[in-house]
Amino acid sequence: MKFKTLLVVILFFLQSCGYSPVYYNSKNIDYKLNIVEIKSNDPIIRNLIKVRLKNLSNENGEKIINLRVTNSIEKEILSKNKKNEITDYKIKQNINFEIISEKEQNKLFKFNDEIKVENINDQFEFKKYQDVIIQNFINSKIDEFILKISTI
User: Domain with 38 in it: what CATH number?
Assistant: First the structure.
């Protein structure tokens, strides 16, 4: 009985599932991200993008990547009820990362997303919910961008 439990414990510690975080290598990036311009309608989103990219940048990196970031968010009314109250919205989100290079042609990375959102009677809660959706989109697309440029 002791042999079986000892064998299970040994196998448990010797076995590895092979898990490694997807963005693990992005922490060890070898370049500095220099933000040339950020275009966005909302200053809070502009600041979120700037801070997030600055945190992912390696200040001691040998290679410097100049970036121009453009972000746009549109909210459309999808449906209304009989009282003419809005019941559903569609939020369209776009973010573009343009790598500006003097030697090569500029590279453009485009990310788009649409999401359908039901209206909440409490406008404060709806605004908070909408902000969370937008922040999650921005963070996930920045992570995707970093992953793409780390493979280049």
Answer: 3.30.160.150
Its pTM surpasses 0.85: no
Give a yes or no: residue 76 inside a domain: yes
Range of the domain at 125: 21-151
Structural domains in the chain (count): 1
Whether residue 143 lies inside any domain: the answer is yes
At 13, phi and psi to the nearest 5? -80, -25
42-62: per-residue pLDDT in tens? Answer: 888 899 999 998 888 888 878
